[in-house]
UniProtKB/TrEMBL annotation:
Domain Rieske: 417-504
Keywords: 2Fe-2S, Disulfide bond, Iron, Iron-sulfur, Metal-binding
GO cellular component: cytoplasm; membrane
One MF annotation (Gene Ontology) recorded for this entry: metal ion binding
Ranges annotated as spanning the membrane: none
Name of the protein this chain belongs to: FAD-dependent oxidoreductase
Keyword Metal-binding: yes
Entry keyword Transmembrane helix: no
């Protein structure tokens, strides 16, 4: 079968299309961002009778939500031991409870609405093949015991991952995220909500009401705004640019000679690998991911998708490689998401971000916390996820490391230049070079046409770098990404890269 360069979830294009906003409108709550957080929040609000408008700058679910591996689990890598050392036992327990409740809420919504979305209970398993990580996993299991998490230690697995030790979290789940979200979108409309696509929010004005301004000069007047864009498009004075860092990961779906033995796996050794399955149209697909790297720090000698293919061929009996895609995620200073009111000055603006790749349950936690805040209801998790929190340890250390990296990229990026000359660029690739003292990026398309761009990121001025796997210009500072012709794809940047004239 021919390889498809899009996520398996987009097969069949099941999400309906919505119009662009072409006038000024009024509502009670505007939700900006049509991924799983925005859709779930709009769904919960609409069900409570709140008048809600949901907008997305592209098509619903086309950003990170559409590029997930869709594991619904409270097992978020090795995290509980770390949370117990940095925070209190109660806070670590609250994190687990909030994520487990999120799984239950998703299951309830699926049952209540009889949604056919391939929902299946599965155990979640972390594994390692090295001694250093074995110790870390043993400590993680001690944390499971202390927090009463239903788990088990394993020394053998039914899949052929090289491994010495593993730990299981029982009764987690997986699903088809777009089939699930389509049903929520139908319910939003059914309950009087409005949805607009290709409608990019640009700014929020704060007067008697909130006014969400769009790039096309239209306004949505409302009482409260939920920012559910993966990186908040509006930062206020919350400084998310200094408090999160972006990373990319890659995923594929293939068929195997072996029947899938069940379970959802995460190999914690570098490079990490993730595995689950999906039965679709009578075919059993293995969804396999990993090869993470910081955004904008793509290593040209690694070729992440090729590495995944080699691993799958060697260990997982790959037969047919069918879909491949990639995703972007953000991590906060203390690894807990930021969910809640932006700050004291802007309490009518609410935000959810920084899920550290675990968006399925975190989005439900966020949707419930934000809905309860909007409805003035109590919620036990508001303090845990409050976006304005600051822990001296680990926030300070991570703050310094994140911002040292940004400063380094700001300076070194300007000095960087490829060894190759523009003439040597192969079709479908790019280099950076100097032209009259200015750093420019040159992409050669498959017809041999050259596209020259100013490689200064339009967000805060870092230098973008070329990602040859995805044919994009990626910014290492806060994760803005641009297509090979400079069009903004994702991240905090709102403007395209500037085109420049290339003089041979
Ligand atoms: Fe912030 Fe590029 S400078 S994303």
């Amino acid at each position: 079968m021919k390889q498809k360069h899009f996520p398996i979830w987009q097969e069949g294009d099941i999400m309906p299309a919505f119009p662009q906003l072409k006038e000024n409108i009024k509502t009670e709550v505007t939700v900006v961002g049509g991924g799983i957080t925005g859709i779930t929040t709009a769904y919960l609000l609409a069900k409570k009778g709140v008048k809600v408008v949901l907008i997305d700058r592209g098509k619903l679910t086309n950003a990170t939500t559409g590029h997930t591996t869709a594991k619904i689990t409270a097992q978020h890598g090795i995290i509980y031991h770390e949370f117990m050392s940095h925070f209190s036992h109660e806070e670590a327990a609250l994190y687990y409870e909030s994520q487990s409740e999120a799984l239950k809420s998703i299951r309830n919504i699926i049952q209540e609405n009889q949604i056919e979305c391939h929902f299946e209970e599965q155990d979640a398993i972390l594994l390692t093949n090295n001694d250093k990580n074995r110790r870390k996993l043993e400590q993680e299991f001690e944390a499971y015991t202390a927090l009463n998490i239903d788990g088990e230690e394993l020394t053998q697995l039914p899949v052929a991952f090289p491994m010495k030790y593993a730990i299981k979290m029982k009764n987690q789940a997986q699903f088809h995220p777009i089939s699930y979200l389509k049903s929520l979108v139908d319910e939003i409309i059914e309950n009087g909500g409005e949805i607009y696509e290709n409608t990019s929010a640009y700014d929020i004005e704060n007067a008697d009401h909130r006014i969400v301004r769009t790039k096309d000069q239209h306004s949505i007047i409302c009482d409260q705004v939920v920012i559910a864009t993966q990186f908040p498009f509006f930062e206020g004075e919350a400084f998310y640019s200094a408090r999160m860092y972006p990373s990319r990961s890659y995923a594929v779906a293939f068929t195997s000679k072996n029947p899938y033995p069940g379970g959802m796996y995460l190999d914690v050794d570098e490079p990490v690998h993730s595995l689950r399955t999906l039965k679709l149209d009578g075919e059993e697909y293995w969804i396999f991911g990993g090869q993470n790297h910081k955004t904008g720090q793509y290593k040209h000698d690694v070729a992440p998708l090729q590495k995944l293919k080699e691993f799958a061929s060697k260990h997982l009996k790959l037969t047919d490689w069918q879909y491949e895609w990639s995703a972007q995620d953000y991590t906060t200073l203390d690894k807990l998401p930021y969910i809640g009111r932006l700050n004291k000055n802007r309490p009518e603006i609410l935000v959810a971000t920084g899920y550290r790749k675990w968006g399925m349950t975190n989005s439900m936690v966020a949707a419930k916390v934000l809905t309860d805040l909007i409805l003035n209801k109590e919620n036990p998790y508001i303090d845990l996820y409050r976006p304005t929190r600051f822990h001296a340890d680990p926030d300070l250390k991570q703050f310094i490391s994140t911002n040292t990296n940004v400063a380094k990229e700001l300076v070194s990026g300007k000095l960087m230049q490829d060894k190759h000359t523009p003439k040597e660029i192969p079709a479908g690739s790019a280099i950076k070079t100097k032209q009259h003292g200015q750093t420019i990026g040159i992409y050669k398309d498959h017809e041999g046409k050259v596209h020259a761009l100013d490689t200064t990121c339009t967000h805060l001025g870092c230098e973008v770098t070329w990602n040859d796997e995805e044919k994009t210009w990626d910014c290492p500072c806060h994760g803005s990404r641009f297509a090979c012709d400079g069009k903004v794809i994702e991240g905090p940047a709102l403007e395209d890269l500037k085109k420049v004239e290339y003089r041979k």
